[in-house]
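In response to the reviewer comment on reproducibility (Comment 2.3), we provide here a single inverse folding case reported in full, input and output, so that an independent group could reproduce the run without further information from us. The structure tokens appear first.
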């Protein structure tokens, strides 16, 4: 067990899987010679050569489309789109090819493709700041990983690369320098297994990636006030571990979802609908969502801080929920 950053954990997962399987290739804008715009792939080209780690033109649709073709022909491509926002630029190949190819052909093909998607707001403006996980969760045939810790970043990416289905792998940029313990080369995490980060009986809070750290910080303040929240990190949004979340809601009698995506038709909306369908009788207080309002994410730091759920907003929301 070693302590490394979230970015180093991703780098290590890529290296271990490329070492284990020569069919794993990595490409994207600046991932090779420069080591990635965020330096996550630093050193991999020198280690594995330019045939397996290479730079690509700025054309997201072509990048993902080539990945679908390579995956169908037997390789295991890992494609980096520099910003998760550009998932939509490649929507045709992501939603209609990667996600559906296997099903449209009666299971005759596997599509072992991983698309790495750096996400989250760092003041880079509305086109480089979003967390578009809901688009993936809404689209059949796609798996969606949202690791929140270095250990999960490494183990989920290794599982993603070994999976025979296309995986959209979100990397939150605010977590790249977060340090934590990681497992050895054999550690992988199955998809669809949530982690209860903090046990409690007052209220269930579901959060992931950067929002998880803010929720856990708020939980300490709330505990001092006698509000004992249970915090769940889903780890993957598709498949989603409904069993763990619903069991928690049946215990606490309430749920708040904190997410960095847009509120309308976001991940929280789906979680709320599932709770109403399967645990409505257990609710002792209204289901609540805390997300980004439906406005373009600004560049100015003060405005970014205003639209993204803060610890103060989480505290306010929980206190209002607990009033009933």
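Designed residues, in position order:
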């Amino acid at each position: 067990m070693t302590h490394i950053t979230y970015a180093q954990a991703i780098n290590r997962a890529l290296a271990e899987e490329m070492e284990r399987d020569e069919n794993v290739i990595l490409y994207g804008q600046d991932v090779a010679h420069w080591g990635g715009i965020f330096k996550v792939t630093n050193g991999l080209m020198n280690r594995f050569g330019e045939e397996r780690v290479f730079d690509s033109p700025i054309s997201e649709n072509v990048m993902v489309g080539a990945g679908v073709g390579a995956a169908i022909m037997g390789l295991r491509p890992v494609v980096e789109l520099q910003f998760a926002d550009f998932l939509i630029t490649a929507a045709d190949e992501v939603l209609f090819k990667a996600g559906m190819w296997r099903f449209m052909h009666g299971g005759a093909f596997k599509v072992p493709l991983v698309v790495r998607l750096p996400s989250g707001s760092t003041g880079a403006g509305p086109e480089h700041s979003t967390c578009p996980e809901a688009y993936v969760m809404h689209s059949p045939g796609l798996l969606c990983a949202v690791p929140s810790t270095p250990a999960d970043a490494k183990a989920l990416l290794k599982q993603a690369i070994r999976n025979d289905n296309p995986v959209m792998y979100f990397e939150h940029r605010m977590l790249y320098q977060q340090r934590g313990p990681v497992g050895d080369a054999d550690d992988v995490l199955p998809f669809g297994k949530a982690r209860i980060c903090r046990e409690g009986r007052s209220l269930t809070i579901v959060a992931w990636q950067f929002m998880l750290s803010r929720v856990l910080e708020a939980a300490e303040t709330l505990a001092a006030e006698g509000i004992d929240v249970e915090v769940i990190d889903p780890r993957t949004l598709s498949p989603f571990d409904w069993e763990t979340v619903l069991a928690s809601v049946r215990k606490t009698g309430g749920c708040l979802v904190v997410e960095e995506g847009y509120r309308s038709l976001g991940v929280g909306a789906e979680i709320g609908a599932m709770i109403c369908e399967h645990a409505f009788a257990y609710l002792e207080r209204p289901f609540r969502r805390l997300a980004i309002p439906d406005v373009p994410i600004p560049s100015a730091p003060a405005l970014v801080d205003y639209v993204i759920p803060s610890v103060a907003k989480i505290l306010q929301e929980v206190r209002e929920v607990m009033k009933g």
